[in-house]
Structure formats: C-alpha cells, structure tokens
Design a protein that fits this description.
23% of the residues lie in helices and 30% in strands. With 125 residues, the protein is an alpha+beta fold. The chain has one domain: RutC-like (60s Ribosomal Protein L30, Chain: A). Strands 1-2-3-8-6-7 form a six-stranded mixed beta sheet, covered by helices on one side. Strands 4-5 form a two-stranded antiparallel sheet.
Amino acid sequence: MRSVISTKDAPQAIGPYSQAIKANGLIFTSGQVAIDPATQDVIAGDISAQTDRVLRNLSEILEAAGSGLGKVVRATVFLKNMNDFSAMNAVYGKYFSSAPPARSTVEVARLPKDVLVEIDVVALE
C-alpha cells in the first residue's frame, strides 16, 4: 500500500513530488527547506533559523502522516557550507535529544532557492 501525504501546514511542493509517501509502515519525506508554509517564501535568517524552520516543516508532515519526529529512524542533512555544521547540529539536537536517528550530513554545491540547509527523513508510521 502506498499513499501520498500532504498538509497545508508545511510548504507546498515546488515541483513534481509529494511532501511525503507512506508505504509499508514507513514514511519517506521529500527534502524540506526553510520555507514558511504561510507565505511559501524562504525565511530570513542564518543556519540556526533555517534548520529550525526545516525541522518544524518536517514535524508537520510527519504529524499529517500519523507519525512524528520521535519515530524518525534516518535523516539526511544537506548543508551549503560544512562550516555551519555546529550551529545546525545544536538546533537539530533540540529536536532529537533522546535516541536520535541515524544520520548523514553532506556539503553540497547548491540547494533549492539558495537555502543553507535541506533535510529529509524516514520515519516509522
């Protein structure tokens, strides 16, 4: 069984993809960037502000799927600049303070809308 997850409480897709897909007890989110769902604009701010917005967006998508950040088993973080790792990690740690998921963090040349961070996750239903 495969179902599309969509919520107005997170940014709408800016291309031909779903916010998330639920399949076989897992939820796979698309990468989220620091877009305010109310305005559909990238928020102003540094890596800390953008990481917080991204994780709030992911939380809304997971809640719409009947899950939550506490059920995330895998995360991938894409950073525009690896020098932002510590600041991103400090915010990330507030959302995943207990039994954090497995994670990879990579630096990339460019991200959609020239944001500083993008994160996608896989969570249990």
